[in-house]
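Milestone M4 deliverable, item 7.
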Amino acid sequence: MSNERYPHDRLLELREAFKQNLPIDTSLIRPFILASWQRCRLSSTHRKAKGPISAEMLASALIRNRELLESAVPFMEKLFSSISAAHSVIGLSDSTGLILHTVGHEEDIKALPVFQRGFFATEEHSGTNGIGTGLIEKRPIEIIGAEHYYGDALGWYCCSAPIFNENDLVGIFNISTRAQNHHYHTIGLVEAAAYSVSEQLRLRLLLKEQNAMLEFLDEGVLILDSGNKVRALNEKARSMLSPGGSSAQNRLTGLPVHELLPLEKSDLTDVLSAQHRINDREVTLRLPNGVFQYAISCSPIENGGAIITLRSVKRMREYAARMMSQGAVYSFENIVGESTAIREVLRLARKASQSNITTLILGESGTGKELFAQAIHNASSRKNGPFVVVNCGSIPRTLLESELFGYEDGAFTGARKQGKPGKFELADGGTVFLDEIGELPLDAQASLLRLLQENEVVRVGGTTAKHIDIRVVAATNRNLEEAVGQQTFRNDLYYRLNVLSITIPPLRDRKTDIRLLSNFFLEKFSHALGRTDARFTEEVLEALTLYDWPGNVRELENVIERTINIASSALIQLSDLPAHILKYRTQEPALPGHTVRSSVLKTQEMETIMEMLRETQGNFRLAASKLGIARCVLYRKVKQMGMTPGMWRSKKAIM
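Output delivered:
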């Protein structure tokens, strides 16, 4: 642009004629200038008054635009040092057109009152000008002399460019100089300065996002420079490594890393000199506020330095324990029973939950030993800690010790690098339930005894004992006293486990609970199937009560689940029960020589008859024909089973 193309006097004439609504040659006026003049003419009758805003409003605006000012002012100062001789004023406005900062000679700033701090430079206030028109155009623009709509800046040249934060326009960067001194390079200079400020804002936003991510992490992060000094660290790292509060924590930046991480010299050298990432190496740090176990990871930075992360081993164990187990879900309220025997067991179990005493739960299979162990845990002070179940009989003997106590790197062929914590470590702060403790091999029993006595665990292949805080609840269906006598169970371990023993009675010794349990399981399974009207006949409840239940509560639950699934009506009758349970209603004392084989055959015969009657819906003639027996024989056998023919005839098929 040059004054030859846009002569000042001619433009001045055109502008005055335009203000009076006279016809003019618009081809001599740049389109965006003409559009601005049109806006100014429309608003001239209600032009906003010029003048600074209040000190309070300005202070609030400066705080609101703090990052814009911090990013732009250094560029403004540096730029002015190179153009100060040109009688120029550099101005910065926010997205509303409010002047936030100016740099220039005092006499030049006074000559441009529109560009003084605290004034608005919008078109509504000041007509066509670099800042006000720049806010509308949202691109770099130049305005020369008479192109300004009002006479305040007739002798000035304005060049402005927008400043963006991401996609949002947040301000205008403007240079104003005497019209006769303007240079065509100025617009490039202004555009570059605005772009630099925009980039600075973008980097600030990126840094804030990165800092937010670092602070969000549940691990300590340290960033080291090429000299292994701490360049930056997040708040988690500060709290993990400094006991002295925020004032002490602020001094951590700039320290050599070995002062923050008091590791063995060889360990620290290994970590920092590695040319590849090191993951979760467990280390012990002796800090002024205690001894802590952390998992340290280190990743080198390409141009020097490294990123180190620290995670609490205890927290990692808690997470791992949650992942490998659903935890304890049952409480004492979930235990069904009103018999004297079960009430005594509940009393002892509640006592056990109020301390960390090692507890041994005895009882036949299916009596609910794990249910009691979970209830004890959930009623204890450890209820928020992990509940880790170990079935001592299901883990291969060759892997048992490494599963329970963990192992170190290289402990055996195929061992995972960095080693692996055992289930006792994973249960730190919580409860370990050792089911089938009677199946534990003798060598593992010795390690368990040490753990119970010292509260320490030594990993397979390791030499360092790690202190852990766990509560042990063990269970077995074996007679441990006999196992001690047979030398398959250690005498000292037995007495260490048997501090408080709880014996859960078999279901046959708590017959008064069978009806209660049966109805409880009926409600549970009928709701799951959407058959909420299901109910037992009195004969069914009597048959369930007469049966001895060698599989205990677990067997009763399975039978009720089977019965509700095969029953063809809401009223569950004797014919819906398994034959081996019905046999107890009419069973006579066994004769000498009565064999198990004959009992099994009799049960199979009963089940076959019942299945055929269900299939034929009580048609005895058809059922007898299919079974290959006389109808009278079939009637006699049904009567011996304690049932009547009408039981099947009254049923309707399941739709």
